[in-house]
TrEMBL record:
The gene is AP1S1. Keywords: Coated pit, Cytoplasmic vesicle, Golgi apparatus, Membrane, Protein transport, Transport. This is Adaptor related protein complex 1 subunit sigma 1. The lineage of its organism: Eukaryota, Metazoa, Chordata, Craniata, Vertebrata. Adaptor protein complex 1 (AP-1) is a heterotetramer composed of two large adaptins (gamma-type subunit AP1G1 and beta-type subunit AP1B1), a medium adaptin (mu-type subunit AP1M1 or AP1M2) and a small adaptin (sigma-type subunit AP1S1 or AP1S2 or AP1S3). GO terms for cellular component: AP-1 adaptor complex; clathrin-coated pit. One of its GO terms (biological process) is intracellular protein transport. Belongs to the adaptor complexes small subunit family. InterPro entries: AP1_sigma (IPR044733), AP_complex_ssu (IPR016635), AP_mu_sigma_su (IPR022775), Clathrin_sm-chain_CS (IPR000804), Longin-like_dom_sf (IPR011012). The keyword Phosphoprotein does not apply. The keyword Ion transport does not apply. One of its GO terms (molecular function) is clathrin adaptor activity. It is a peripheral membrane protein. Residues 1-140 form the AP complex mu/sigma subunit domain. It is found in: Cytoplasmic vesicle membrane; Golgi apparatus; Membrane, Clathrin-coated pit.
Length: 201
């Protein structure tokens, strides 16, 4: 997958994820052109189309269009299934997701996508596994926001919601947690006890 776009019927971009290097100017131009092409198509037309040197797969859910650009050798039906799986994940997390959920909780939509796809390829096909990772991240944020521990800039950066969970479990992150005074708190338990990380440190 080269990129994914979410936009409304009115042509408002709600989410964009790029998996190729490109200037901002070129990206904006591609987004504008692709939205015009997709929005001009009739409801009964095929969800696949050739555009530039790419194949575009899109599907409309309520007021939102989910649009993916793939390479020529990629499978359109699999891409359509990936779009549907992402919508299912959003539905499970938000409870019947709507456009307003994406607008006011866009960081969660990005986080779910990053747990599902990495570099344009599927990272985890299990909805249960992806949702569990997101729940753990949410719990971590809640615990940290209510913790009395000293929140220095370095640790605050690591709790950014755009950070994939796999990266949060890096050795550097574990070293910071190990240095906290309250080692046996929920923070440490969340990342170490259930995954046997405490035995490695």
């Amino acid at each position: 997958m080269r990129f994914m776009l979410l936009f409304s019927r009115q042509g408002k971009l709600r989410l964009q994820k790029w998996y190729l290097a490109m200037s901002d100017k070129e990206r904006k131009k591609m987004v504008r052109e692709l939205m015009q092409v997709v929005l001009a198509r009739k409801p009964k037309m095929c969800s696949f189309l050739e555009w530039r040197d790419l194949k575009v797969v899109y599907k409309r859910y309520a007021s939102l269009y989910f649009c993916c650009a793939i390479e020529g050798q990629d499978n359109e039906l699999i891409t359509l299934e990936l779009i549907h799986r992402y919508v299912e994940l959003l539905d499970k997390y938000f409870g019947s997701v709507c456009e307003l959920d994406i607008i006011f909780n866009f960081e969660k939509a990005y986080f779910i996508l990053d747990e599902f796809l990495m570099g344009g390829d599927v990272q985890d096909t299990s909805k249960k596994s992806v949702l569990k990772a997101i729940e753990q991240a949410d719990l971590l944020q809640e615990v940290w926001s209510g913790s009395s521990a000293d929140k220095n800039d370095e640790v605050d950066f690591l709790f950014c919601t755009y950070l994939p969970l796999a990266l949060a479990l890096s050795c550097h992150f574990m070293g910071i947690l190990q240095g906290l005074e309250e080692r046996e708190t929920t923070l440490w338990y969340l990342f170490c006890s259930s995954n046997n990380y405490s035995d490695q440190l």
